[in-house]
Design a protein that fits this description.
Elements (H helix, E strand, L loop, with lengths): L2 H16 L20 H15 L7 H4 L4 H17 L3
Helix pairs in contact: 1-2, 1-4
Length: about 90
């Protein structure tokens, strides 16, 4: 799965879960102000991402810094790279 595939999957998953117009899914969009999510939605967002990519999102420093859709893209891509670099 390429980085672009991952970004598209994130956008599609979030748009479907939170009933957001797919055209609004731009990396610079803020989660709370522009996409209309609230603090309770973030719990659902974590569940959506864990289901879509089959990895756990724990209390990580990176998760606290997420403010935009682009931040989510970067977080998931970094997580994917970390998991791929682990010995099997």
């Amino acid at each position: 799965m390429t980085d672009q595939d991952i970004i598209e999957r994130i956008d599609r998953s979030i748009a479907e879960e939170f009933e957001i117009d797919p055209e609004a899914m731009k990396p610079e969009k803020t989660l709370f102000q522009e996409l209309g999510l609230d603090s309770l939605d973030i719990v659902d967002l974590v569940i959506v991402l864990e289901a879509a990519f089959r990895f756990k999102i724990r209390e990580e420093e990176g998760i606290r810094k997420i403010r935009t859709l682009g931040d989510i893209h970067a977080f998931v891509l970094q997580k994917k790279n970390e998991l791929e670099s682990l010995p099997r």
